[in-house]
Each structure stands twice: as structure tokens, then as C-alpha cells.
Design goal:
single chain; mainly alpha; Arc Repressor Mutant, subunit A; two-stranded antiparallel ribbon; about 45% helix; HTH_MetalResp_TranReg
Length: about 100
């Protein structure tokens, strides 16, 4: 795993996004509501995760569905002890980088 991949995971909003999309597919709108950030901010985070090849996207009708099936991402989240319902590690999810 490269430093660029770890850098893409270093933002709290992107990390929370990864945690959620490793559980199931999400649309940008639903994911933005769940995380508590704007759709435009989330789209920028998702772009960064796509560039790092951490998420996959597929079109279904007018919807873009995001998911993560990368076992390396799952392993990192597991090593960090992060689960979707564990928010104790999250500081501010509105921070961006």
C-alpha cells in the first residue's frame, strides 16, 4: 500500500466514508446525509478515494453507487479497530484536505 493511499485515508470524512461504503453501496446524497457534509464536499472526497483506487463506482439508472471491496482497506480498518458504529475516534467530520 502506497503513501498516497494512506494519505487519501488520512482525512476523518474520507475515513468515515470508507467505513460506510465497506458495509454497503451508497449514493452521494445518502452518504452525505449520513456523514453530515455537503454533497459537493463529499464528491471531492470520493474523487480523491477513486484516484487512490480505494472505492468503485457504478451507474444504476440516474444514480452513481459507491462501494469498497478492497481487502487492504478492510484490513486497515480492522487493524485500526474502526467500525461503522464506532464514532469515538472522529473529531470534526467537516474538516477537508
Amino acid at each position: 500500500m502506497s503513501a498516497a493511499v494512506l494519505d487519501a485515508m488520512a482525512n476523518p470524512s474520507r475515513l468515515r466514508t470508507l467505513m460506510l461504503i465497506c458495509e454497503r453501496e451508497w449514493t452521494v446524497g445518502d452518504l452525505a446525509v449520513q456523514i453530515g457534509i455537503s454533497q459537493s464536499a463529499l464528491s471531492q472526497h470520493l474523487r480523491r478515494l477513486r484516484v487512490a483506487k480505494l472505492v468503485k463506482v457504478r451507474r444504476e439508472s440516474q444514480w452513481m453507487l459507491y462501494r469498497c471491496e478492497d481487502v487492504a482497506v478492510l484490513a486497515i480498518l480492522d487493524v485500526l479497530g474502526l467500525r461503522v458504529n464506532d464514532s469515538s475516534w472522529i473529531g470534526s467530520t467537516s474538516a477537508s484536505s
